[in-house]
Design a protein that fits this description.
It is a single chain. This protein is an alpha/beta fold. Helices cover about 40% and strands about 10% of the residues. It is built from 14 helices and eleven strands. The strands form two sheets. A seven-stranded mixed beta sheet has the order 1-7-6-5-4-2-3, sandwiched between helices. Strands 8-9-11-10 form a four-stranded antiparallel beta sheet. The radius of gyration is 24 Å and the shape is globular.
Length: about 475
């Protein structure tokens, strides 16, 4: 493909992109296909000769698009959102066009300096302490791993990096029973061992109990273990519960262990000053992660990781072979030393485009709207017979279940709600997901896509209620 062909094809693709963004509601939010349906339409072997772009693009429209779940669809209320926005998409196009490798200041000076400045902006927007330094990781899973590895190395005076585990490091990591599954994975990857991840029970609103955390730490110390880190959560995945972050921070200081705050989704809401009362002492933590690619209108992947002790982070990950040494090493941030991978994408560009396009007030307004949608839906559910709330709604995630009159057996209720969820999702109009709270099957509804409107939420809820009424009639 030469440059002129590229120009022609690119215009065609951009026209398709604009049409897609304008007409996403015309697609089924979730495809009605079975495993293997897409793969079976693809040739078993790669083409021996190059193919025409128009043929490739035709197959994209006829094979790939019908097999996609449309995350920006107005009926998508599942998982947590994976936001994008027009300015973010445009920035991603520019990033892909430049094809820059941003591991060192020297390899892309503007990328390093823009990331440094944008992370300072974001720190201030979220109300984090000035002593925090930020870097963009690919995901919260990676950010939490980075936090645990840094905690491990600082606790061992960086000896594990040098000698490996000796068998005397009986480290313990603590999180709540509602902590994200990536914490389990990261504990295993960090060599700490899944048996040394201690799950702390939660209270009636699914937040970690700090008294039970202290009991566990004291018990472990008595048994010869070393408290290494606590991962608390600002907005759990199942219900967006908020752990008592200030109390946990004080305990971590008392027992000399690292405090990492996982604010992957709900952390974006900290840009709203009145939300900060939910975590008034968040500045006590050692590290903090929030994902602009979830609720800050920025394409995946973009995970903002903040740390108080920058030098321990660099000491944990720094590797300096001769072929990577540069004259500027001592006066710049070489972000290849701030995480696991050497290679780095130019992620800061899309976040910069988003912040400048919307401004702080524009981003705040969108998040306030989304929270308002969640509170509206909560009130609707409270006044809808046969439906019950299953968790508080601090943000915009609403956890509920159907509870028809005459069904009180919990196993039967779980089965009923699972069947209802499958019926709703098969429609292609609305997509929801589930979780378990107190052992009960719960349906999650979260409205947080960039362009989600109050009308989208009302329309989605009316459809869900209609499906419930229809299902209840058939059951009886």
């Amino acid at each position: 493909m030469n440059n002129e062909e590229f120009r022609t094809n690119a215009h065609q693709v951009v026209d398709w992109m604009a049409d897609y963004l304008a007409n996403q509601e015309k697609y089924p939010v979730k495809p009605d296909i079975s495993p293997g349906d897409i793969r079976n339409q693809l040739p078993e072997h790669a083409p021996a000769e190059g193919e025409d772009f128009q043929k490739i693009f035709k197959d994209f429209n006829e094979i790939i698009i019908p097999g996609m779940t449309h995350w920006q669809h107005p009926g998508f209320f599942a998982y947590f959102p994976a936001n994008n926005s027009e300015p973010s998409i445009l920035a991603e196009m520019l990033t892909a066009t430049m094809g820059a490798q941003c591991m060192l200041w020297l390899t892309s000076p503007a990328a390093e300096e823009l990331e440094e400045r944008v992370m300072e902006w974001l720190r201030d927007i979220l109300g984090l302490p000035k002593e925090f330094t930020g870097v963009i990781q690919d995901s919260s899973s990676s950010a939490t791993l980075v936090a645990l590895l840094t905690a491990r190395e600082r606790k061992s005076a960086f000896e594990i990096n040098r000698r490996g585990f000796t068998g005397n490091e009986r480290y313990r990591v603590y999180t709540s029973t509602q902590g994200h599954s990536s914490i389990d994975k990261d504990v295993k990857i960090a060599g700490i061992g899944i048996e040394n991840l201690v799950k702390i029970e939660v209270d009636e609103v699914f937040a970690m109990r700090s008294d039970k955390l202290e009991e566990a730490i004291v018990r472990d110390i008595a048994d010869g273990f070393i408290p290494l880190a606590v991962v608390s959560t600002f907005g759990t995945t199942s219900s967006t519960a908020v752990d008592p972050i200030g109390e946990i921070g004080r305990l971590c200081q008392k027992y000399n262990c690292w405090h990492h705050v996982d604010a992957s989704y709900a952390g974006s809401a900290l840009m709203i000053p009145e939300i900060r009362v939910l975590a008034p002492e968040i500045g006590r933590c050692d590290s903090f992660v929030v994902n602009p690619h979830k609720w800050m209108f920025t394409n995946f992947d973009c995970s903002a990781y903040f740390i108080r002790d920058k030098q321990s982070l660099i000491n944990t990950f720094s590797i300096l072979p001769d072929y990577l040494k540069t004259a500027e090493d001592k006066i710049v941030n070489n972000y290849r030393d701030w995480g696991v991978p050497l290679g780095r994408r130019f992620r800061a560009l899309k976040l910069w485009f988003v912040i400048r396009t919307y401004g702080v007030s524009g981003m705040q307004q969108k998040i306030r709207d989304h929270i308002r949608f969640g509170q509206w839906l909560k009130e609707e559910i409270l006044h809808t017979p046969g439906v019950e709330m299953m968790a508080p709604v601090p943000f915009n995630l609403v956890c509920f279940r159907f509870h028809p009159e005459g069904i009180n057996d919990e196993t039967q209720l779980d089965r009923y709600n699972e069947e209802m969820l499958q019926k709703i999702n098969r429609s292609g109009k609305v997509f929801l997901t589930q979780t378990k709270l107190n052992g009960r099957y719960v349906i999650r509804f979260v409205a947080g896509q960039t362009h989600t409107s109050a009308e989208d939420v009302k329309k989605g809820w009316e459809f869900i209620k209609d499906q419930f009424l229809d299902f209840r009639k058939k059951k009886h």
